[in-house]
Amino acid sequence: MNIKKIFSKKSITFTVTGKPPQKSQWGTKDAELVIKLREAALKARNNAGINQCITTPIKLSITIYAPNIDDINYSQDIVDDPKLYIGDLDSLVAGICDYLHKGPKKENKFIPSPLFDNKPEIGPDIPLIIDDDSKIISIMAEKKVSEKQIYYTVKIELL
Question: What is the pLDDT of residue 82?
Fold first, then answer.
């Protein structure tokens, strides 16, 4: 299959509810966020009619929506406060980029969360969107205010 031919008139776009996972968190409490991202990416890729990862350069556009995009001094009353500061944009983008391809090699003492055991289709050994994040040659990212819900959108375009 010529991925460029199939993808030339399409882009892959998906939305994920919740905060993006931090970079290199395959085996931590952020594993649930990684799973949500990878499930949404796989579904969007399949809906675009693509059954393999992209091996050519891509452009990535990311928009992160949250009630509190800039007040790091906000004093929260409860842990699940929706006004909790979402975080630094560069950290959020790095996390998203980290999970569009496969995880680190197991010989590097990489231990993914056991949550991936029942999800082999999105496991860390599967490159979902790209074979390597070095294929991302352009990134446009921004944070926007959302009244209540935290979520983010990801758009992948072939260059």
Answer: 67
